[in-house]
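so i finally got all the pieces together for this one. its two components total, 525 residues if u count the protein bits. some of the lines might not be protein, just check the labels. i wanna see the whole assembly predicted at once instead of chain by chain like last time, that was a mess tbh
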Amino acid sequence: MCGIVGLFLKDKKLEPELGNMLTDMLITMTNRGPDSAGIAIYGNDADGNSKLTVQSDNPAQDFKGLKKALRKATGVKISVTKKDTHAILEMPTDDMTKVRSALKTIRPDVRVMSAGDTMEIYKETGLPEEVANRFDLRSMTGTHGIGHTRMATESAVTTLGAHPFSTGADQCLVHNGSLSNHNSLRRKLRRDGVTIETENDTEVGAAYLTWKMRHGSTLGEALESSLDDLDGFFTFVVGTKDGFGVVRDPIACKPAVMAETDQYVAFGSEYRALVNLPGIEDAHVWEPEPATVYFWKH
Amino acid sequence: MQSFDLETEGLRKLNVSLHAQSNDTNQTAWEITNPKGSHAIAVGLDAPIEVTVLGPTGYYCGGMNKQATVHVKGSAGPGVAENMMSGKVVIDGDASQYAGATAHGGLLVIKGNASSRCGISMKGVDIVVHGNIGHMSAFMAQSGNLVVLGDAGDALGDSLYEANLFVRGTVKSLGADCIKKDMRPEHLEILKCLLAEAEADAKPEEFTRYGSARKLYNFDVDNASAY
């Protein structure tokens, strides 16, 4: 199964409430995906810095002294905000590459979940409510965000198997469905130098989009070509720095409902996820068409 | 009028209360508030009662219905009136995928649009959709009537048996073994009755009938290589 929720705010007044609204939507989708949950949230870009979301299975050890160690290795002034198994490293944009390579050396077990100017990704195994509490998702603010509740089918229940997956700077992907050609596609992408860490089908979907964009496609074009190259069932929701998009496979058996008002565009695997949004009674509510790429931008 | 707040009283209590109604019940009118997209509302009813749901429903509303009239004043999630046997289900808004799937009898009216697989494997139900229907509708439909005032999506009536499909608008594409057929007087009569019962503002003459070419009924040795 799996559940997807997404919220793209048009009304700035709602931005302080983004975490709260998304968390409610996420918890409503618990019985579609009680194994794991995750969220990608796009915050404020005012500081001109970039950030990495990193994750560790052993945060007490890995995050201890991380700030000092990175500063010593790179000479870059970094801020580290710890949130349970995750931490946000903020640094000047130009120093990102240097910091990433230093991190690989001094903390080889720490995984980079996302990189970009505004996006942060948090995901863990467990019930959505527990995951939301661990990362204090309710307190987060921002312009848009995507959440996922997972019922695993194609690979094990692990942190790395949870969604969202990052597909590039400030880009993420969540998936409801199952891809059937992920093994052959994984081999093909690996031969072409794409790093894929798990046996998970969605990670291959995300890697596929990254690979297409590396070869010159826009995200929209990459999503269009996914309709030809990915075999299986999928409803994808993708996030970018200033927008979010939706695409369903041509069979479209994985559910999707959207709602739009003057204040927001919202996505839910079921209408239940949308019922508490402001003004939902008068929203334009519809199901996205199969094999059609939808996109909203700020 | 029996009033039931789904949010405070819960789904199980609702369906138990509705199942407790017999053929000669005098609690014939029920109103359900705060459905909020919940699943399995008013499923498995078997009494001549009228149930009005004030708002949108989730999966399988009115499924397996016998005798009852279920009226949703909102939109319905996937599988509305799935496997209905008799009675009537009316959706004021849109219906999600596989509305009326495998239903044996009764009437399903959707006043908005229905999405993909509407009437899939229908076995005798009558379905009237005031708006459009999505792709793969009436897939392997066996009997009954599907009436669409708007347009139909891709692969209408794929691998169809003996159901009648009536579409007033355009059909994006026909599925395997589904063909356009002549409208005979008995079909106009069926349409006239169904349109009246579904409160649909359309004339029988405006519709085109589609049905099975009956080429897939029996094994054909020339197709052996396709298996």
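Chain A has two domains: 3-43+138-297, 46-117.
The first strand of chain A starts at residue 3 and ends at 9.
anyway lmk what u think
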